[in-house]
Amino acid sequence: MSTVPQHRLLRTEIPGPRSRELHARKSAAVSAGVGTTLPVYIERAGGGVLVDVDGNQLIDFGSGIAVTSVGNAAPRVVDAVREQVADFTHTCFMVTPYEEYLAVCEALNELTPGTHEKRSALFNSGSEAVENAIKIARHATGRSAVIAFDHAYHGRTNLTMALTAKSMPYKHGFGPFAGDIYRMPMAYPYRWPTGPENCAEEAFAAFVEQVHAQVGESNVAAVIVEPIQGEGGFIVPAPGFLRAVADWCREHGIVFIADEIQSGFCRTGDWFASTHEGVVPDLITTAKGIAGGLPLAAVTGRADLMDAVHAGGLGGTYGGNPVACAAALAAIETMRADDLIGAAKRIESVMMSRLKELAATYDVIGDVRGRGAMIAVELVKGGGSKEPNAALTAAISAACHREGLVTLTAGTFGNVLRFLPPLVIGDDLLNEGLDILSAALEAATSKAAA
Ligand SMILES: *Cc1c(COP(=O)(O)O)cnc(C)c1O
Predict the structure, then answer these.
(1) Separation CA 424–CA 357 (nearest Å)
(2) N or C: which end of the chain has fewer CB within 10 A?
(3) Which residues belong to the signal peptide in this entry (predicted)?
(4) Ligand 1 close to Cβ of residue 229 (< 6 A)
């Protein structure tokens, strides 16, 4: 277990004086383009708690954006990293390889959906994995067009900005973007014009018609989709939609890529979220939760696609760094040994029942959705209006932060509160976090009514 006490403690206001001092230094040293959600500076973290430089203990409902699923500084990860860093830190797998890289690829090939023959390749960041998945799909098919969806988030590099849907802050002023990328409607049940019951069927019909008319099936290398959309607002596609898209891809020789960078590694109550949709992707991109906080990413998929690329066509200096690989193996072992799939399901049952209770009380909660420990509420004006309520979202989030609960927002319209606790969080912390949220919601709505 973590040596960090697993309870909330506020010693100062949030952020405290020492954090404020550091934050002044940030402005002088760090590019203003690098933002921070909550400027408390962290000194130590473990389990579901972050300890800041003023001695405050905050409840973590963010996991550094779905990264520290096994907990921060998870004991097995710490031991594996210590051991590896003392043995060797880098050789470059493309120069003189090492076994840890192979073991991570073997684990990925085994754990990802489907029993077909697979291969993997390792990279440093999620964006880099997505870039490489597109490279592989284009090379293997000899085609160039790529289809992404409304509300998609795939990263911040040039190609992945082009795939990402939202302009501010991700793309604004950063063009021109990579070409031959097309965007199709997402089956977003809560906002589907004719209602959630028609969503999957109508969204799929629009997809088929628009790809045919605007792109032409035979020009399409790949369709890339998040099985639960992350930054876009934890949108769970209407049931059946992804399955229909994946089947259609197979029919047309198009590579179906599931971007599981946020949804993977037990987060949604299974190893991968594609499984909930009954989909076996041709390629899967992973990162975030893979290595307990160390930077690692991967593309895993059909051996015939992955092996289509000429030797030397994929790689990078640091990709599959041995320390990151050792951390990944320890994180995966932790997920297995401590049943973190079960833990994600337990978090879902606690969160869903409490959030649905809140939704019954507050009509500004338009939708509660998600799976496992990837849960969100979408906030609206209420009183029958589904108009997005970004101001209320920001106010509630700020109130949670002041009380020592780290929450994140998301959504194309900035009106989604999303919860991504570490899977090892205790029930007490989880419930205390939800109490804080509930009080913040009460305060913000009664203020608005007054
Ligand atoms: C975070 C994320 C990315 C980008 O990963 P980085 O490591 O930040 O480059 C890509 N896709 C999804 C779904 C993500 O959540």
Answers:
(1) 24
(2) C
(3) none
(4) no
> What does the pLDDT profile of the chain (450 residues) look like in tens digits?
568 999 999 999 999 999 999 999 999 999 999 999 999 999 999 999 999 999 999 999 999 999 999 999 999 999 999 999 999 999 999 999 999 999 999 999 999 999 999 999 999 999 999 999 999 999 999 999 999 999 999 999 999 999 999 999 999 999 999 999 999 999 999 999 999 999 999 999 999 999 999 999 999 999 999 999 999 999 999 999 999 999 999 999 999 999 999 999 999 999 999 999 999 999 999 999 999 999 999 999 999 999 999 999 999 999 999 999 999 999 999 999 999 999 999 999 999 999 999 999 999 999 999 999 999 999 999 999 999 999 999 999 999 999 999 999 999 999 999 999 999 999 999 999 999 999 999 999 986 665
Q: Is residue 127 lining ligand 1, measured as CB closer than 6 Å?
A: yes
Helices 322-337, 75-87: inter-axial angle, 10-degree rounding? 150
Ligand 1 near 259 CB (within 6 A): yes
What's the CA gap between 142 and 84, in Å, rounded? 40
Ligand 1 mutation target, pool 67, 122, 124, 154, most atoms within 8 A of CB: 154
Q: Is the CB of 109 under 6 A from ligand 1?
A: no
Please give the single-letter amino acid code of residue 293.
G
Distance, in Å, from the CA atom of 408 to the CA atom of 394, rounded to the nearest integer, reads 10
The token pair at 139 is 């090379």
Q: Is the CB of 131 under 6 A from ligand 1?
A: no
Residue in 7, 88, 96, 11 with CA at minimum distance from that of residue 53 = 11
Ligand 1 pocket, residue 164 CB under 6 Å = no
Q: What is the DSSP letter of 10?
A: -
Amino acid letter at 180? Answer: D
Structural domains in the chain, CATH included, are: 17-73+339-449 (3.90.1150.10), 77-337 (3.40.640.10)
Which residue, 293, 168, 154, is CA-closest to 229? 154
